[in-house]
Amino acid sequence: MKKDIVIENGTIAFDNWITPGSPVYRQFWLFHVENPSEIISSTKKPLLVQKGPYTYRTRYLPKKDITQNADHTVSYSLPLEAYFVPELSVGPEDDKVTVLNLAVAGAPSVIPEIAISLVNGWIKKSNSSLFQTRTVKEILWGYQDPFLEAIPNLFIKDNTTGVFYPFNGTFEGPYIVYNGKDTIEKTAIIKEYQGSSFLRYWNNTYCNMINGTDAASFPPFVDKKKALYFFSPDVCRSLYAEYESTRNLKGIPTYHFTLPSSAFASPLVNPDNECYCTEKEISMNCSAEGVLDISGCQDKKPIYLSLPHFLYVSDYISQTVDGLQPNKEEHETFIDVEPTTGFTLQYSKRLQINLMFKPTDKIDLFSKLKSPLLFPVLWLNELLPVDHLHARR
C-alpha cells in the first residue's frame, strides 16, 4: 500500500493528485449594503444582507509543469480558472449588489500620504462614492474602475480591480513537495513555495514557516491526536486543523478535522499568533479575536480575513455591523481525511473578506466616520464534495 501512496507516475496517489477526483467549487455570498448613505453620514451602523450562493467550479484543471526531482520531490504549478455554475447558484452572474467600493475604501492605505489630499479631487472627477452597485461577476473577478482611471499612473499602475482580480489564466505556485518515496511520513509535505522554503509576509521566522501540505492530501497513517498542518496562499500563512470526530463518508471511515478558534485567536489567548498581529489600532494592541490582517501580502490593500459572519470575532468588531448571524456548523472550516492513505475526501474552506477604512479629515467621504471600521465584503466556501466514484477509489 505504501507504494501506491507515493506521488509518482503510475500510483493511485499520483492520479488523484494531478486532478481532484471530485469537482471543487467556490461558493460566494456577497454582503449587500442596505443603508450606504447612513453609513457615510455615520448616523447608523451598516445593515448587511447576504446574497448567494453564486457558485463557480475551480481547481478542475490538471497540475502543470510537473517535474520529478532527484531528491524525491515533485515540482508543479496549479492553474487557476473559475467558471460559473448557474444550476448551483441563486441567480445569474449579472445580478447586481451594492457593496463597499474597493478602490475608494482602500485608497488611504495604498496612496502615498503625500498625495492623500488629492483623493477628494479624484473621487469627484470620477463621480465615485464609498459604496457602489456592481454585478457579481465584476465584484469577484474585476472591472475597470473610474476612480482608479482618474488617478495618475505615478501612483497606481492598474485601473482594474476586483476581490479576486487577477484570477483566471493565472497560476498558484510553483510548489515543490516531497513525493514520499524515501520517507513516507513526508508525503505531500511542501518543501518550497514560489522558490522559497519560507514566506516573506511576516516579521518573524515562526509566522513565515510553510508547514504541512496544500490540504489536498496528507502523509498516510494520520494520527488523530496530532493537528493537521496545511499552507493556504489565500490566507498568506500556514494553518492547522484539530481532530473532532470519526465519521462515515460514503461507506469509508474518515477523521473529521476542524479549524479551531485558536487559529485566529488573540496572542493573549494563543501566544503563537503574536507575530501575526501587525497593527495596533483595529486589534486594540493585539487583543482582537478572530481577524487576520493580510495587507502585507496584498500590496498594502487593507484586507482582513475572518471566518464567515465574524464567527469567533471579538464583540467590539462584530457589533459594528448589523445583519450577521455566525453559526459554527455553517461557517467553520473542516477537512475529512481517510486516515490510512491521508487522502482528503471532503473539505470546506470558509473565509470572509473584510476591508478596513478609517476616519480622515482629508477625504470628505471618510470625514464623518467615528472610528475605524472593518467592513465585510463577502464570504466564500471552497468545497470538495465527495462523490460515489471518488469514495470507492
From TrEMBL:
Which InterPro entries does the entry link to?
CD36/SCARB1/SNMP1, CD36_fam
UniProt record, GO biological process: amyloid-beta clearance by cellular catabolic process; cell adhesion; lipid storage; lipoprotein transport; long-chain fatty acid import into cell; low-density lipoprotein particle clearance; receptor-mediated endocytosis
Classify the main location: membrane
Cellular component terms (Gene Ontology):
apical plasma membrane; caveola; cell surface; Golgi apparatus
Q: Which GO terms describe its molecular function?
A: low-density lipoprotein particle binding; low-density lipoprotein particle receptor activity; scavenger receptor activity
Instruction: Print the keywords alphabetically.
Output: Cell adhesion, Cell membrane, Disulfide bond, Glycoprotein, Golgi apparatus, Isopeptide bond, Lipid transport, Lipoprotein, Membrane, Palmitate, Receptor, Transmembrane, Transmembrane helix, Transport, Ubl conjugation
Tell me the membrane topology, using the record's own terms. Multi-pass membrane protein
Cystine bridges = 207-275, 236-297, 277-286
Q: Which reaction does it catalyse?
A: tetradecanoate(out) = tetradecanoate(in); tetracosanoate(out) = tetracosanoate(in); butanoate(out) = butanoate(in); hexadecanoate(out) = hexadecanoate(in)
> Where is the protein situated, by its record's location annotation?
Apical cell membrane; Cell membrane; Golgi apparatus; Membrane raft
The similarity comment for this entry is:
Belongs to the CD36 family.
PANTHER family the UniProt entry points to: PLATELET GLYCOPROTEIN 4, SCAVENGER RECEPTOR CLASS B TYPE-1 SR-B1
Protein name, as recorded: Platelet glycoprotein 4
- Which organism does this sequence originate in? Pleurodeles waltl
Lineage from the top down?
Eukaryota, Metazoa, Chordata, Craniata, Vertebrata
